[in-house]
Amino acid sequence: MEIYVNQNALPNGKGTKEAPFCTISQAAEAAKAEDEVLVAPGVYREWVNPKNGGTDEAHRIVYRSLEPGKAVITGAEQVKSWKPFEGEVWAVWIPNSLFGGYNPYTTLLEGDWYIPEKPFHTGEVYLNGKSLYEAETLEGVLHPEIHAASWDPEFSLYRWYTEQEGDSTVLYANFHGADPNRENVEISVRENCFYPAETGKNYITLSGFAIRQAATQWAPPTAYQEGMVGPHWAKGWIIEDCEISESKCSGISLGKYRQEGNDNKWLHWKYKDGTQTERECICQAQTEGWTKETIGSHIVRRCNIHDCGQTGIVGHLGGVFSVIEDNHIHHINNKQNLAGAEIGGIKMHAAIDVVFRRNHIHHCTRGLWLDWQAQGTRVTQNLFHDNTLPNLKPDLTEPDAGVFQGMGEDIFVEVSHGPTLIDNNLLLSARSLKLPCQGVAVVHNLIAGSLVSVGIGTDNGAKTMACPRYTPYHIPHRTEVAGFMTFLHGDMRFYNNIFVQQQVHPALWAAMEAMEKEKNPWDDCNMKTGTFPYDGYPTFEEWDREFEGYCGMGSASSDRYYMHLPVWTGGNVFFNGARPCAKEKNHAVASDTVTLRLKEENGVYTLETDLYEHLPALSTALVTTELLGMAFEPEQKFENPDGSAICFTGDYFGANRENAPLPGPFASGKEAESPLL
Questions:
Q1: How far apart are CA 503 and CA 449, in angstroms?
Q2: Mean pLDDT, residues 555-564
Q3: Stated pTM of the model
Q4: What is the C-alpha to C-alpha distance for residues 26 and 47, in angstroms, rounded to an integer?
Q5: Contact present, 321 and 297 (Cβ < 8 Å)
Q6: pLDDT for the residue numbered 17
Q7: d(Cα 23, Cα 11) in Å, to the nearest integer?
Q8: How far apart are CA 47 and CA 75, in angstroms?
Q9: Which one of 84, 279, 332, 354 is CB 3.0 to 4.6 Å from 364, fit for a cystine?
Q10: Which of 310, 516, 523 has its CA nearest to residue 405?
Q11: Beta bridge partners of 596
């Protein structure tokens, strides 16, 4: 059945084409499996809380904007009652009755792994769709100062402040000459936009909406992970062709339900470390029904996700077996007013058998962060660039050493045992891969940044005591936990990649080298490109010899069970001073200097490079699941989610490779000249 919605309809509509509902919430109350909710253009200021879900893949509930992008669901309300206060500052008094049971201007951001540098609220003030910066005091609004860490420092002078006065929320805002009663000024009043209050609302499709401006809370893995949009612990959602923007914290959540007794436990009961409460979250979810049959298998595709404070997409446990493809994710955490872990274009814990493909991820404080249990995860055919803090730009002459621990990279795989497959990507940020993990295969990529945190970053950071982080691995292609283990490092494969050292400003280079010498346990601040951070790691043959003649009793004569795991290499090419590891096999170090630049013109991205004119001859092998073998701890092959083998014959565009393929993400130099998106 088709159910119609039009914001201009009369309140007593029936949902028919002739007498539509006037809110999407009315339709969400009525819709059942196989129904399609068709929404006319308009601005729908409401929280849509679906009452029902579909029953299976063939019997979904579909919510569709009749004109793509023209039906807007927003968590904000317009405010036109501002009064001049002082100078360019205006004030408004909002009755607290507007907010119902949730007032974003009395609710502070909080949660595990959040660093509350200042007491920020979940609410926002928007000028023509763009969120202002919250100030700690009214003085900070009257006399604002530039927030130097912002990616848009000039706009950081647009400030707001809130306080309570009787039964009213008072907002002060500095609009710098703009009249808020003439401009479009809004404030966020709702926590979510399209998000079920209850779990288990399966098989819902959300298609073609613009969704924006929700007062979401911080979303760590050890808490109820909410987003502006999301399934809230369900199965089989499709979120497609939507524009998702201006969530205070997370745009889309594929994350965890609220667990009884273990919700932000580390924040509120500090005696047990956060990583232990994380392990308990995973085990509790397993006992409470977290299985392949009941949770995950979502699709997020062709969405434009931008200008969210914490993440574009977040998830822990609830995003398993999903596909995230063809999305444009950009300008995430650019205000730099939220600090802590759990920040990135995408931040996923337990991305079991999740495929990330053909996404364009840029200008984020970290592009893709795969944390814990990136088992069976594949990252393929994506374009990453500009995913480091602006402090790394070449005009930086006196960098602040404090920023470098969290300065971002294209892909961060943390404390995971794999198998994690990273293939056919363009990794063009100053830092390409952060790898405090094991069990990763890096195949046919163009890597123009550094490998960071190799061999470190898997402990909890205690001052004097041993504090390794034990993380789980799972039965292949399932959620059931097979075991827990700490990290030996290694178990890495680098095949048929091209490494190009980018130019780095001399002052920045010197600062990074100074930071390297400090031996930070979390981030070695490496800016040099190549596989050389794996110098000293054994080949398989060297590692295997440790076990020759060994009967299985005792280990005092050898570190065989605690030494680094092997590293496999082959077919890699190194340009502009990028360095291979000491035991690199079948590789080429090019003597020619090449150019490499990403060019954007009218939204079209192309590579300007001559590296294929200087690519040295090299005998390469076609990479396959058989060649890659299995990740050590889970004993699982680098294969498709259905268990079938992979042969890397397709390139970045899907073009076919020959049996002796060129290194890098393109089947030919001609392919490299094509528009990348």
A1: 10
A2: 82
A3: 0.96
A4: 11
A5: yes
A6: 96
A7: 8
A8: 7
A9: 332
A10: 523
A11: 609
